[in-house]
Write a structure and sequence with these properties.
Helix 6 crosses helix 8. The longest helix has 18 residues. The protein is built from 9 helices and 9 strands. The strands form 2 sheets. Strands 2-3-1-4-5-6 form a 6-stranded mixed β-sheet, sandwiched between helices. Strands 7-8-9 form a 3-stranded mixed β-sheet. The chain is α/β, with parallel strands linked by helices. The radius of gyration is 20 Å and the shape is globular.
Length: 303
């Protein structure tokens, strides 16, 4: 690190499933944001911290931008634009194989009204899914729709083009002291990251609407003398019927989820983990302000 350091915030925005969480995890080098095949899974504005030379890049991983229906949806969309408003640089992710969708067009129109002259980079993601001529045509179309500061062709999953994007971001951040210690990769408490890991496994295992009707809270965290950690979590569901689905026949579903979450947490924390999950019915959790605070969302934004 040189005497002249740079630091700033970068907001990753885009439609649900555009690859924002995958890109964040790739940049940071660890799983700090959940990655699933389902849309709208990122709830909290998770910040991942990445060091590139003398620059510290603080990523704001925003919820995917979509048309909100419920209070939680509205709060997530408000958080996404709030993250963009706080950033020094914005990166719009667009899926190469989907192109200029109505959703992307709506985001571009909103960018024209909201960013106030801050640089916006375009990252066309999942480039391995389309031919080169399709990519070039899409880049041309998107740049005609908005004056992007720079365009990158990337695959967040495979790492193509990610180093170039990281270097450009580092070079364009304002000069100033770093915000976080050199070895810190996220500003969320470990309790919240642990809950997100379990919620990822729930989302991957369960189907349809159920993943959006539950939340996970870390109730207890104990670092033991033998070097292991005990984590107690509660999964809140909205209805009795959901509890049965989550537990599964003979408890096999919850056991599989617990095993997968425990293995991820052990790798992330680099220590043995003892994970204990409870399932409780809480019919109105989607209308409880404190649940939103724990997810980094503003309850009032859902009104």
């Amino acid at each position: 690190m040189t005497d002249r350091t740079h630091a700033g915030f970068v907001a990753l925005i885009g439609e649900p499933n555009a690859g924002k969480s995958t890109l964040l995890n790739r940049m940071v080098g660890a799983k700090v944001s959940i990655v699933t095949h389902k849309v709208q899974t990122t709830r909290a504005r998770i910040r991942g911290v990445c060091v590139a030379g003398d620059a510290q890049i603080v990523f704001v991983d925003t919820p995917g931008l979509f048309r909100p229906r419920r209070r939680l949806d509205r709060a997530m969309v408000a958080a996404a634009w709030g993250g963009a408003a706080d950033a020094d640089i914005i990166v719009l992710l667009v899926e190469a194989h989907r192109g200029l969708t109505d959703g992307v067009q709506a985001i571009i129109e909103a960018l024209k009204e909201r960013v106030g002259g801050r640089p916006v980079a375009l990252a066309i993601n999942k480039i391995d899914r389309v031919k080169a001529e399709t990519l070039l045509a899409l880049a041309e179309t998107l740049n005609a729709a908005y004056p992007f500061a720079k365009t990158f062709m990337i695959s967040a999953e495979k790492g193509y083009g990610v180093d170039d994007l990281r270097e450009w971001l580092a070079a364009n951040l304002p000069e100033g002291p770093w915000f976080y210690p050199e070895d810190q990769i996220a500003d969320l408490p470990l309790r919240v990251i642990a809950a997100e890991v379990t919620r990822e496994k729930l989302t991957l295992r369960l189907h349809e609407e159920l993943p959006y009707q539950l939340t996970v809270e870390t109730e207890k965290w104990e670092d033991r003398k033998d070097g292991s950690t005990r984590i107690d979590q509660v999964i809140y569901v909205a209805r009795d019927g959901h509890k049965g689905i989550l537990l599964g026949k003979g408890g096999e579903t919850i056991k599989a989820i617990s095993k997968a979450a425990r293995e991820d947490l052990a790798e992330f924390l680099d220590r043995p983990v003892h994970l204990f999950l409870q399932v409780k019915v809480r019919p109105n959790w989607l209308e409880e302000a404190e649940r939103y605070s724990e997810m980094g969302l503003d309850f009032k934004d859902g009104e």
